[in-house]
Amino acid sequence: xxxxxxxxxxxxxxxxxxxxxxxLQRIHRLLQLAYExxxxxxxxxxxxxxxxxxxxxxMKHLTEVAPTERWMSRFxxxxxxxxxxxxxxxxxxLRKGKRRPKIDIRIVCKHQIPNRGYxxxxxxxxxxxxxxxxxxxxxxxxxxSGNYGRGDSLGGMMGYIQSDEISDWTRKIESKLSQLSSxxxxxxxxxxEETTFDSGPTHCFLSSHERDCGNDIMLVHVMFIxxxxxxxx
Length: 233
Known about the structure:
globular
């Protein structure tokens, strides 16, 4: 699993890097199993919430009803999970109740106290402005502002490919990422790099960001194909 080593350059100790790699490995195993439970071509026109809901349904089955691996029972899956402690930019007050932003997916590891959470924001790629939506204030920007995962060092973005070639979208995303002042480019000079997880999703990338709320965050980008396309990147 290359993720075990790709996470180390972010200034983490070896033990922390190994624990982080195992945490990410299990999360992305759940995501891949959920994706495999679907018939992707049936979701080519589906709304993001519909796809996300079905992915969460299968992950909840694995973590709550019928774990296929022992570790799965230590995880819980929450869709449309409210994000607390978010201050409104307009009023300067805490956003409460229905005004709280909702995270598309939050996966929680219950193996330790306090529990460790992992927030994921999902976006569709199906029209010309999809990449802008992926990086704007309700996409990557929600992590940069601290609206999502304020105290976390890890977070996830998930792209649902519903048109064109995946390579077209990844090029556009990389170009957009290179325009973000928050991005810490890797030694290659690129704003993100490919990574892999054992038995995990085929198309995964890493990007590292400085953000307004203080602590840096590493984002794992997962691309799932929902139309019969060539899968080369």
